[in-house]
Amino acid sequence: NAGVMQNPRHLVRRRGQEARLRCSPMKGHSHVYWYRQLPEEGLKFMVYLQKENIIDESGMPKERFSAEFPKEGPSILRIQQVVRGDSAAYFCASSPGTVGYGYTFGSGTRLTVV
Amino acid sequence: AQRVTQPEKLLSVFKGAPVELKCNYSYSGSPELFWYVQYSRQRLQLLLRHISRESIKGFTADLNKGETSFHLKKPFAQEEDSAMYYCALSGLGSGGSNYKLTFGKGTLLTVNP
User: Fold this and answer.
1) Which residue of A has its CA nearest to B42?
2) What is the pLDDT of residue B4?
3) Closest-approach residue (CA) in chain B for A108
4) What is the C-alpha R_g of chain A?
5) Inter-chain touch A56–B93, beta carbons under 8 Å
6) Cβ of A105 and B44 within 8 Å?
7) How confident is the model at residue B100 (pLDDT cuts 50, 70, 90)?
8) Which long-range contacts link A2-5 to residues 24+ away (Cβ below 8 Å)?
9) Which of B23, B92, B99 to mutate to test the interface with A (most CBs of A within 10 A)?
10) Does pLDDT of A42 surpass 80?
């Protein structure tokens, strides 16, 4: 089992471009979560998805950010018109069900906006 | 609101010394608490969860509801314990179950030879 796979590992975008971050959950996991870590900060919840459904997006900025988890394929976190403040590490995690089991995290995507 | 505080950003001990990484939380309900560890250049890994009351790699953590703490302890630190440690609380999200993790800012533990 390859674990939670995130790609790319590093992503550099110019201001105004779009960033697409991909996450493939562990086999058998149908719950996906995205977290963002700004410099010197802890991880902050962004969004929780199940297949084809957004369950909770309360941590997502209201504009420019969107997430999906289609029936087939990886979960995608999309950031349109990136700004310098979007530079952060973005972590995806998955779980088989309730969080009592704890998440399994991916290695993260480090986004740098220049 | 749920909050996790790790008061020490950095902690440095010598090999063989006891280590305690502090974690305090604020949550109105019944929390589930976790410790995650991130070794250099590796992904965040679950170290402990309070409901299982287990010991992993010699680490233990006891939930103290009176003091709202979940400190991580190890009696004899090893060099390979050097890593970033995050305390996290699982609280109720708007989706109706305890899926949302709130993390502390982390403590960087360095174990010196």
Assistant:
1) A107
2) 95
3) B43
4) 13
5) yes
6) yes
7) confident
8) A2/A26, A2/A27, A3/A104, A3/A106, A3/B43, A4/A29, A4/A92, A4/A93, A4/A94, A4/A104, A4/A105, A4/A106, A4/B43, A5/A74, A5/A106
9) B99
10) yes
List the single range of A10-24, A48-62, A65-79, B90-104 with lowest mean pLDDT: B90-104
- Asked if pLDDT for residue A32 goes beyond 80, the answer is yes
Quick one: CA dihedral B106, B108, B38, A22, positive or negative? Answer: positive
Inter-residue contact A69 to B7 (CB < 8 Å): no
Give first-to-last CA distance, chain B, whole Å: 41
Contact A10, A19 (CB under 8 A): no
Within 10 Å of residue B75's Cβ, how many Cβ atoms? 12
* Residue A78 CA, distance from chain mean position: 9
Query: Two tokens at A57?
Result: 């997006």
Q: Give me the pLDDT at residue B96, please.
A: 65
Phi, psi of A103, rounded to the nearest 5 degrees: -80, 165
Report the pLDDT value the prediction gives residue B99, as an integer from 0 to 100: 81
Using alpha carbons, select from B103, B93, B107 the residue that is nearest to residue B3. Answer: B103
**What is the tally of helices (H) and strands (E) in chain B?**
0, 11
